[in-house]
Please model this.
Amino acid sequence: MEEGRQKDIFVYGRSLGGAVSIYLASSTNYKTVIKGIVLENTFTSLHELFINKIKLLPFLGLVGIKQWNSKALIGQIEHPIMFTRSLKDNMIHPVHMKTLLESANKSKVKVDYEVETGKHQPIWYLNPGKYASALNSFFQQA
Model:
């Protein structure tokens, strides 16, 4: 990033992309260029996601798949974060997003946005106007 240039990048991550966004924002290589993060229906870690869904944990360890422990990393992030979740998500239980929100101790701005309907589809699709308004409000706060 050029000297004196303002940070203006917002990272958006949905589902597995949320874990990638958290990783980027906590990384010393990228955190200086990120202004904020929007997370949608993501998980605390692959371990916690799979422990209640399917018994693949021993297999994941054997093949070397990253655990993507977002709950451990999000506590390091100081950037503004918008947490968006569907209360009816059938893939990733909404408690994952609530836990991430509570674990983001260093974030100066935390916005909690939830919808009653929808499953694991993009939340903006359920009510584009309301979502755009919430997103715009988050951008203003950030």
Remarks:
- The beta strands are 9-14, 34-40, 81-86, 110-115.
- The helical segments are 16-26, 46-53, 57-63, 70-74, 95-103, 128-141.
- The CA atoms of residues 82 and 111 lie 5 Å apart.
- The mean pLDDT is 85.
